[in-house]
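[audit] Reproducing an earlier prediction to check determinism. Same input, same settings, fresh worker. If the tokens differ from the archived copy the diff job will pick it up downstream; this log only records the rerun itself.
[audit] input (88 residues):
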Amino acid sequence: MGYGYGPQWGMMGGYGYGHGPLHLIVWVVILIAIVALVVWLVRSLAGPGAHHHLPPRRSVGLDVLEERYARGEIKREEYLQKKKDIGG
């Protein structure tokens, strides 16, 4: 028997590490760990609160007040006072 490549070539007759479902599972776990590490690094380097780009929520009362002022139901002075009271 020679030292060539064939079905029984390598350690343990070709059935050692590097073949079979265990090898696939190991590489999938390594790939998941790498992806998780990259996601964690990107989030941590972005800084705290970097993923919160939503504008502050606007008061519904301020919307109603602006509509009333636009329709002419209230005068400018009353509009400005109520807007100040609401906090807008």
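[audit] rerun output stored. Observation attached for the diff report: Helices lie at 21-46, 60-71, 76-86.
[audit] end
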